[in-house]
Design brief:
Leucine-rich Repeat Variant
């Protein structure tokens, strides 16, 4: 079986159109302020997908939002590329979302836009049941934490030997990033063999 980037009658646009292309089209169609406002309201659940006066959710996802969480994920993806500092409150709400996919994209937003929510990321890193969320939280801590975030550093150090190799690698990379950004080689783990 081969995959093609060209649209097909048998495959929805969601699978053939890159997120960046969908976001660029949404910006062109709605304008930057309208897109960001709508994405913020979707992400924080202030509006449901396909609310009467909102744009068609297909603009963000390339297809109908089969599950409501999908619209929030697509809104988060839009905010990865079309950002305004006022969206930070929506990201904070999304860090506590019931659906793990939304918490994951929220942690990615914290990392991408270097938002200072290390304590909340530590909660996700420690308590979230979903490895994808914990990995995203580890990466975001690597981008946003400082050596003064003792609890975050401690949690990352504990995860370096986690049985989930993706999580342990994310923790190791996060410690390396903090060490590099703050010229603290003592925080980085020993090189892998």
């Amino acid at each position: 079986m081969s995959y093609s980037a060209s649209p097909s009658a048998n495959r929805p646009d969601h699978f053939s159109t890159a997120v960046t292309t969908r976001v660029a089209t949404a910006v062109e169609t709605l304008g930057y302020p309208t897109l960001v406002d709508w994405a913020m309201r979707l992400l924080s659940q202030e509006t449901p997908p396909n609310a009467e006066h909102d744009p068609d959710i297909k603009l963000l996802g390339g297809m109908e939002a089969i599950e409501p969480y999908m619209a929030r994920v697509w809104a988060g993806q839009a905010l990865l590329h079309a950002w305004h500092h006022k969206a930070e409150d929506a990201v904070v709400v999304a860090l506590d979302d019931d659906d793990w996919q939304v918490r994951e994209i929220a942690a990615q937003l914290v990392a991408r836009h270097e938002l200072k929510h290390v304590d909340k990321l530590v909660e996700l890193l420690t308590d979230d049941a979903y490895p994808h969320v914990r990995i995203a939280a580890a990466r975001a801590i690597g981008v946003t934490a400082t050596p003064q975030h003792d609890v975050a550093i401690d949690r990352l150090q504990r995860l370096v030997m986690d049985p989930n190799s993706f999580l342990s690698a994310a923790a190791e990379d996060a410690l390396g990033e903090i060490a590099k950004r703050h010229n603290r080689p003592d925080l980085a783990t020993a090189p892998r063999y």
